[in-house]
Amino acid sequence: MAEHLPNAMTNDPLAVSDLADELMKAAAAERISADEINEEVASVYAVIFEAMHHREGNLADDDLSEFDLLAGRLAREGNITETQARDLVERIGTDWETLLNEAHFVKELEGKLGKV
């Protein structure tokens, strides 16, 4: 799989999320259901992330997981805490636009609750 991936940055969770979305659209075009894919792998995002991250066969022990990278980026760009970001990734998945919208909602809700 790693041989067929584009030359995208391996530490960019948004690029991985985009590739996962493209994979699911291509599968749907071939009439492969998401349920079929989910029976085989727990997370398409995680499979693509691992393939990109280890395309050279390197398995560094100190690498952050794909979810750590995604949660970190979400925390920074959504201006929320790491804990909140991890919770969103665990509950929502890896769709970047949805995650970012939810992060903005969390931040807005915090602002409103803080004014009460």
Q: What can you tell me about this protein's structure?
A:
By secondary structure, this protein is mainly alpha-helical. It has one domain (2-114). It has six helices and no strands. The chain has helices at residues 13-29, 34-40, 44-53, 66-78, 82-92, 96-114. α5 (82-92) packs across α6 (96-114). The protein is elongated and about 50 Å long. The model is unreliable at 57-63 (pLDDT under 50).
In short:
With 116 residues, the protein is an all-alpha fold.
Helix/strand/pairing category: mainly alpha
Give a quick account of the main beta sheet: strands, pairing sense, barrel closure: none
Ends: how far apart? 52 Å
N-to-C SSE string, H for helix and E for strand:
HHHHHH
What's the structural domain tally? 1
Unreliable spans: 57-63
Number of helices: 6
Multimeric status of the protein: single chain
Rg over CA atoms, rounded to whole Å, is 16 Å
Beta-strand content bin: under 5%
**How much helicity do the residues have?**
55-70%
> What would the average pLDDT be, to the nearest integer?
78
The strand count comes to: 0
- Overall 3D shape: elongated
Name the descriptors.
mainly alpha, 116 residues, 6 helices
Strand and helix layout:
Layout: H1 13-29, H2 34-40, H3 44-53, H4 66-78, H5 82-92, H6 96-114
